[in-house]
Amino acid sequence: MNVSGTSETAEEYRPSRFGRAFYRVGPEMDRRGAIQHRVRMLSELTGNVVEIGAGYGATFWLYPPLVTEVLALEPDAFLRRHARHAAEHSGLNVRVVPDMAESIPCDDASMDAVVSSLVLCSVERQETVLAEIGRVLKPGGVLVFYEHVRSRSRMVAGLQDLATPLWRRAAGGCRPNRDTVRAITQAGFTMDSVERFGFRVNAFAPPVAHVIGCARRVGAEVAGA
Ligand SMILES: C[S@@+](CC[C@H](N)C(=O)[O-])C[C@H]1O[C@@H](n2cnc3c(N)ncnc32)[C@H](O)[C@@H]1O
Asked: Which residues are within 8 A (CB) of 62 and not within 5 positions of it... i.e. 6 or more apart?
């Protein structure tokens, strides 16, 4: 693993209210079908992988056998503790570290894949994180993603815009109105596949637009790479 200088001072992050809440709602989402989406997202991966914002480690036991090692980043101390517990029981060669996706502790062009599952909605600046992902991926390496995104319906997108300031404060920085596929393309990745679908995260929520996709770093064309 090409880990360069993981900052243990990030261990000082306090467990957030969001971390505790997500630890409750995440398993419910998985029971409602998110787990199948995660499996599809991960199914083609091989080699060494970085998973940004790994949460409590819901994906660890779903990685396919050709994945040799996973570096899982999780800045929230509460979720990270659970991710480490999941890592111990997963049978996967995985290391959980406190780093942010804005500063991935890997060498340039050293990783076969980066995984983002419900994280690009929450990072402060998508373009910074996407450039960082481009930096660590080998040429031809892939970013696989499972994200909720801005609706194609103008009316629903307008409602998402209205809800975003409040939702962002309540849900760990999450912006429901982001056009993440567009951001990935604008960052210079080539889109291999994108599947769009509606998904209800709980029994009372309306279906929300989600995407699963695979974007490739082709040569040095990724912004910042
Ligand atoms: C909705 S949770 C998803 C967790 C996990 N990926 C999953 O699918 O279950 C969002 C996660 O992103 C993490 N996160 C938020 N901002 C981040 C950042 N800038 N860098 C890395 N992780 C971040 C949060 O701590 C949280 O674990």
From this structure: 35, 38, 39, 42
